[in-house]
Specification:
- This protein is of the alpha/beta class.
- It is 43% helix and 10% strand.
- Strands 2-1-3-4-5-10 form a six-stranded mixed beta sheet.
- The longest helix is centred in the C-terminal third of the chain and has 24 residues, at 254-277.
- The termini are far apart.
Length: 378
């Protein structure tokens, strides 16, 4: 009898060993798989909003209508400014996590169990139109500024620490990924406001943006967060709407792109300083979204794109970008070939997935000081 049981015991122990091995953060180095993260928490603007603005009663910054969501499961317009899933969704899927639900969808009594679960696996706090500053959109109730998004995280943090033992909560926060995608709307506000341009020059304004973001990152870090994915501002001067204003050759708006570069430079320096201030307790990846999109636009074919200037969903003009993506808008037939979803420069699902693939590439061409894969393996 003992002799017959030995192989089964051995196999069982080997199986347990494999399960244990699979839990090591650096597993992807040996197997090609990504290291696991227990939770994904997303802060930002319409590039990663999962539908928070749907719950703002007077906001017009919503996308809960067709053609948005035409490629989402069941063709559902969820409030994502996209034909399907956005970059936050793609990151969650890469790590085998459920799509982080919008925070404002978790407030009712009927959502109590969903909220408890989401507090652990991840929540999306992003809001279309949001900025680092509390701009006019926020004052009018059109969007949720970053400071308020962090307040909302504090509420979820309380749920998380209530559910888990202190040591478990600490380990969970240590290994989770906190993603920040914001800044474009602050720049749009700047070059759209004569008053703001009178108050400060581009260098001063973009430095103020970086300083304000630093305050919010410190608030998140204080709660126990340690791993941050910070995505820089893309070349917003190359959005279809900006190109369409140049009625002859549809070139990118050079001034707008210059301001983006100024902010990204200030952001990189701020992150380096912040890590020093926090004595290395914060680890981060900065993803150069500007450079990655610039490369895709200059040579789209290797990435699978055929059109990197027009809006897939819109109306009017040569770039289909004179009007927003509304239910009566003209919709491109093959969304996988378009970089931009609408006149504002929101990426298509195909573009969002391409960008996330670049984030997870072993090539550090766009990521510093370490890649996202290295970040989640530390």
């Amino acid at each position: 009898m003992p002799a017959n049981n030995t192989p089964l015991v051995t196999i069982f122990l080997l199986f347990l060993g494999l399960l244990r091995f699979d839990s090591f953060p650096g597993l992807q180095a040996a197997t090609g798989k990504l290291a696991s993260i227990p939770g994904l928490y997303v802060f930002g603007d319409s590039l990663v909003d999962a539908g928070n603005n749907n719950y703002l009663p007077i906001s017009i910054s919503k996308s809960n209508y067709p053609h948005n969501g035409v490629d989402f499961p069941n063709k559902k317009p969820t409030g994502r400014f996209c034909n399907g899933k956005n970059a936050a969704d793609a990151i969650a899927e890469k790590f085998g996590l459920p799509l982080p639900p919008p925070y404002l969808s978790l407030r009712g009594l009927l959502e109590r169990e969903t909220r408890k679960s989401a507090a652990v696996t991840g929540v999306n706090f992003a809001s279309g139109g949001a900025g680092i500053f509390n701009g006019s959109d926020q004052k009018l109730g059109q969007a949720i500024p970053l400071s308020k998004q962090v307040n909302n995280w504090l509420s979820i943090h309380n749920d998380l620490t209530t559910q888990l033992e202190p040591s478990e909560a600490q380990a969970h926060l240590l290994k989770s990924l906190f993603t920040i995608v914001i800044g474009s709307n602050d720049l749009f506000d700047y070059f759209g406001s004569f008053k703001l341009r009178q108050q400060s020059n581009p260098q001063q304004y973009t430095q103020l943006m970086a300083d304000k973001l630093k305050e919010q990152l410190k608030r998140i870090h204080y709660t126990g967060a340690r791993r941050f994915l910070i995505i820089g501002v893309g070349p917003i001067g190359c959005t279809p709407g900006k190109r369409a204003k140049n009625s002859t050759i549809h070139e990118c708006d050079g001034d707008a792109n210059m301001w983006c570069s100024l902010y990204n430079d200030a952001l990189v320096k701020m992150l380096q300083q912040l890590k020093q201030e926090l004595q290395g307790s914060m680890t981060y990846t900065y993803f150069d979204n500007f450079k990655s999109l610039e490369d895709i636009i200059s040579n789209p074919a290797p990435y699978g794109f055929a059109d990197v200037t027009s809006a897939c969903c819109g109306n009017g003009g040569e770039l289909n970008a004179d009007l927003p993506c509304l239910p009566l808008a003209k919709l491109c037939s093959d969304r996988t070939k378009y970089l931009f979803w609408d006149r504002y420069g929101h990426p298509t699902e195909a573009a969002a997935r391409t960008i996330v693939d670049l984030m997870l590439s072993d090539d550090s061409h766009y990521s510093s000081p370490i890649t996202l894969t290295q970040l989640v393996s530390t």
